[in-house]
Design brief:
- The protein is about 50% helix and about 20% strand.
- By secondary structure, it is an alpha+beta fold.
- The protein folds into 2 domains: about 1-310, no CATH class; about 365-530, 2-Layer Sandwich (Heat Shock Protein 90), CATH 3.30.565.10.
- α6 (about 270-340) runs antiparallel to α7.
- The longest helix is centred in the N-terminal third of the chain and has 74 residues, at about 10-85.
């Protein structure tokens, strides 16, 4: 059993599709080669760009970290220079007045006076080294604080035994600077103890934030023993690090590093961040290439469908022309015979008039099919499906009688009404009955059954003809499609009857499916939502 319409041969269609597929495959092959070449170039380019970007970021990060270290040293040096008097000041003003004057000047300067939590002066005395605190602008003699006890012992031992300047130790958070006389060497020492609460929470974070100009990095400052002074508690190899505090102590030149500023990328390392960026770029470029390939495939498919649609349209118009010409020729011949008086006798005239009426009915049915196909819709009225089925059987009675088919009618009484257009639904079932008569008439049987399944009214129309070609079953509802068997037998039709069936069913919220039955023949099942009481 076959369906569709129109002119042309299967061989001609095969040649057209084969030529189109060859050109399409050539285009897609070329597009694939170009896309692969672009992908390779993109992979290499992103690798080079990533390496260059990594080097640039690392160099910029090193510069920023250096700027932080310089800012730390500048703040510490500034405070120390302001607080440390020269030897001539000690001689001219007296050491106490000189320190008090320096202290007041330091309080008035623009620098950060919150850095130092404790300021002291160590001077050689009769029994060792004495300690004096600078507090509220005055020099006050006090006992040595525990934090500077190690410094006191080192200075006293040096005064007795000689040797290098005292070792301050990397674990402490204070600085010392000596005051030198012209002849007597180190005359005293300025001692500065940092306010670590302020340093850790405000001073260091402020310096780093102002100079580490990216939110992609995290940092910390650690002592020589690894304990954290400020910042996040991180681990692993940093992307950049530099020694800070103090870079050098006044009067002694280069000194050991007590703290180290370390910086990491938030992704764990700069290499990981660069690699991640590279793969993101590759993913984006790969997606773009896939879109290009997909666009190429879509273009080839669009071209194929456009050419196929053009061929279908040509076959449709050829079929319509054929379907119009045959009845018009018959009508013209019968009418001409009647007009010329060739037909003699009342019975003969009635036969010729019947020919004209039947052919005119066929033309009317063809026109109705085309009009319904161009404007399928569903009304809003309530349709009694039993009445619609009876009307459809009457409308298809000519095709049924011509095929010599017996109709087995099994329509349940009291079917729920269906909301929609009665004329459209009549056309749906008329097309199914006429289709069964034309293509399955060899079985001389058409079975119609209607019942209720859940919320749906289900109608089946079956025949006992040769059935549907399995290879063509998926296309029987396509517009203008007619199978090889229909074209071979020259069965009349233009290939819109079953397409119209599907359009009407879906417009009413229903479905239609086609299949074969086990004992031979085709069956079409229509499911329409019923209006339940």
């Amino acid at each position: 059993m076959g369906f569709t319409g129109g002119g042309g041969t299967g061989y001609a269609r095969y040649r057209m599709l084969r030529g189109m597929n060859r050109s399409g495959w050539l285009f897609l092959g070329a597009l694939g080669v170009v896309s692969l070449a672009l992908a390779v170039l993109q992979y290499r380019w992103t690798g080079e760009m990533s390496r260059a970007e990594g080097e640039r970021v690392r160099a910029e990060l090193g510069l920023q970290v250096q700027q932080v270290a310089e800012a730390v040293a500048a703040d510490l040096r500034s405070g120390m220079r302001l607080l440390l008097p020269r030897a001539e000041e000690l001689d001219a003003l007296g050491w106490q007045v000189a320190h008090e004057q320096r202290y007041r000047d330091w309080l008035q300067q623009d620098g950060d006076v919150r850095l130092f939590g404790r300021i002291g002066v160590a001077r050689p005395g009769k029994s060792g080294v004495d300690y004096f605190a600078l507090r509220e602008g005055k020099v006050v003699a006090e006992a040595w604080p525990a934090v500077w006890e190690g410094f006191r012992r080192a200075v006293e031992a040096r005064l007795k035994e000689g040797g290098p300047p005292p070792f301050t130790g990397a674990e402490v958070n204070w600085m010392e600077a000596p005051v030198f006389g012209e002849e007597d060497g180190e005359r005293e020492w300025l001692l500065l103890d940092l306010d670590m609460g302020y340093v850790a929470k405000e001073w260091l974070p402020g310096l780093v934030k102002a100079r580490l100009r990216t939110e992609a990095f995290v940092w910390r400052v650690v002592r020589a023993d690894g304990s954290v002074v400020s910042g996040a508690g991180l681990a692993g190899k940093p992307d950049a690090e530099i020694g800070v505090f103090p870079l050098h102590s006044l009067g002694r030149g280069e000194r050991e590093t007590r703290w180290t500023l370390q910086v990491w990328h938030r992704d764990g390392s700069l290499e990981a961040a660069v690699a991640g960026a590279r793969w993101r770029n590759l993913a984006i470029s790969g997606l773009l290439l896939l879109l290009i390939v997909a666009a190429g495939v879509a273009l080839v498919e669009y071209n194929r469908r456009a050419r196929e649609t053009m061929a279908v349209e040509r076959r449709f118009f050829a079929s319509v022309s054929h379907e119009l010409r045959t009845p018009l020729t018959a009508i013209r011949a019968a009418g001409q015979s009647l007009a010329d008086g060739v037909v003699q006798g009342e019975e003969a005239r009635r036969q010729y008039a019947g020919i004209i009426v039947r052919q005119a009915d066929g033309l009317t049915d063809l026109v109705d099919q085309v009009l319904h196909f161009s404007a399928v819709g569903a009304g809003t009225g309530e349709v009694v499906l039993g009445t619609v089925l009876e009307s459809a059987r009457e409308a298809a009675s000519g095709d049924i009688r011509a095929a010599g088919c017996e109709v087995a009618w099994d329509v349940a009484a009291g079917l729920p009404v269906v909301r929609g257009d009665a004329a459209a639904l009549r056309r749906l079932f008329q097309n199914l009955l006429s289709n069964a008569a034309r293509h399955g008439g060899s079985g001389k049987f058409i079975g119609v059954r209607a019942g209720v399944e859940g919320k749906f009214v289900v109608v089946t129309v079956r025949d006992k003809g040769p059935g549907l070609d399995v290879a063509e079953m998926g296309r029987v509802f396509d517009p203008f499609f007619r199978g090889e068997a229909a074209r071979g037998k020259q069965t009349r039709g233009v290939g819109i009857g079953l397409s119209l069936v599907r359009e009407i069913a879906e417009a009413h919220g229903g479905t239609v499916v086609a299949g074969n039955v086990g004992d031979g023949g085709a069956v079409f099942t229509v499911r329409l939502p019923g209006v339940m009481g």
